[in-house]
Amino acid sequence: MLCGFELPIDLATIPGSINIPYTEVAMNMDQFGCEKEGEGWSCADATTKIYAFCNSSTCPQSPSGIRAMIREGYPAELI
């Protein structure tokens, strides 16, 4: 899955990708195959490989989104 973590949502994004602003990644883990479990997420059954991007090679938004995914339990080896 190709994910843009840009903020704000840019119109000129990669065709076929989804956009989840990096500030909203933790609230949208279901987009990556995780299930809501109490106050957090269960990503034990997640199998989707995630390719994250943002505005440029120096953009901090995709690294922030990736850290949020890992913090919420997404397997780092799938990102």
Structural account:
The protein has 79 residues and is of the alpha/beta class. It has one helix spanning 61-71; strands at residues 2-4, 18-19, 35-37, 40-42, 51-53. A hairpin with a 2-residue loop joins β3 and β4 (40-42). The termini are close together.
Key structural traits:
globular; alpha/beta; single chain
Assess the beta-strand content as a share of residues.
Answer: 15-25%
Strand segment count: 5
Overall residue-averaged pLDDT value: 90
Specify the structural class. Answer: alpha/beta
Main pleated-sheet profile: 3 strands, parallel
Strand order of the largest sheet: 2-1-5
How many H/I helices? 1
- The H-and-E topology, N to C, reads as EEEEEH
Give the termini separation: 10 Å
Helix content: 10-25%
Query: What Rg, in angstroms, do the CA atoms define?
Result: 12 Å
What low-confidence regions span 5 or more consecutive residues with pLDDT below 50? none
Oligomer: single chain
Shape: globular
Give a short synopsis of this structure.
With 79 residues, the chain is of the alpha/beta class. It is built from one helix and five strands; from the N terminus they run βββββα.
Fold blueprint:
Elements: E1 2-4, E2 18-19, E3 35-37, E4 40-42, E5 51-53, H1 61-71
Parallel strand pairs: 1-2, 1-5
Antiparallel strand pairs: 3-4
